Amino acid sequence: MTGRTAKIERRTRETQISVELDMDGTGKFEVESNIMFLKHMVETLARYASFDLKVSAYGDNDHHIIEDTAITLGKALQQALDGRPIERMATAIVPMDDALVMTSLDLVDRPYADVDCPSPEFHHFFR
To answer: Which residues form the domain of 55?
Structure first.
């Protein structure tokens, strides 16, 4: 892998997560997980960010899988950027599918999320 790419694996007693990321891709994705909403969200991220993203996420329960997938994706982004400057903050309002998505994002190492989504388990993904 070259450029803004990363390959990260996270293995704990609860989960086995692997992420391959190419930030300068074309939106190709391959997501393996038994959590369909997680698959949908990761595929949507890859498609609209034009990342090439390969994710495998399995474990003992949804909470651990979702949380560890988010941690691993964050580490992959950090590795792929390798200290290179990016636009740190952004805001968008997007009509997507049957939802109106409003996002204000700051890529800083102080997690906070105020999320209205169908499963409380996914709050851990955004934190």
So the answer is: 5-126
